[in-house]
Amino acid sequence: MRTKGLVISTAAALGIGVLSLSTGALAANDSNAGAMDCHMTFTLHGWSAIYKTASGSGTVTCDNGQSMPVTLSAKGGGLSVGKYKIDDGHGAFTDVADMRQVLGTYARASAQAGAGESAHASAMTKGNISLAITGHGTGWDIGVGFSGFTIKAAE
Predict the structure, then answer these.
(1) Tell me, what's the pLDDT at 112?
(2) Weakly modelled stretches of the chain, pLDDT under 50
(3) I need a labelling partner for 89 at 20 to 30 A (CA). Which of 21, 41, 47, 79 fits?
């Protein structure tokens, strides 16, 4: 009789443990349940001479069918000099639950060197949202810098 009670108690404890783990896993998945893929195409042009500035425009499109025209700006400093234009820029956002979450200022650090035809790549974050951008363009630049990369809804 005692063995039977021990088996039932152990089975109940294991069942409760498994149930707790599965609800915990479901809760962890709920935080990412609404996540969608969002991408951005853009153009950007700018210059640097210790101070760095750039501006441009683009379109953010998410896999739920929503799209939004945006304006872009980057401002910062560092040890850099140059002038560039990116005509074929692409960006990929991670951990987006609502399209409007892509708006705001992302922190970015960069290093670059190029002349003539050049390629640019950068990764940046804003809270839980990450943005990786790539692009091909023209111009020349050299240096290291830091900046804020801001995305606003176009008016």
Answers:
(1) 63
(2) 1-31
(3) 79
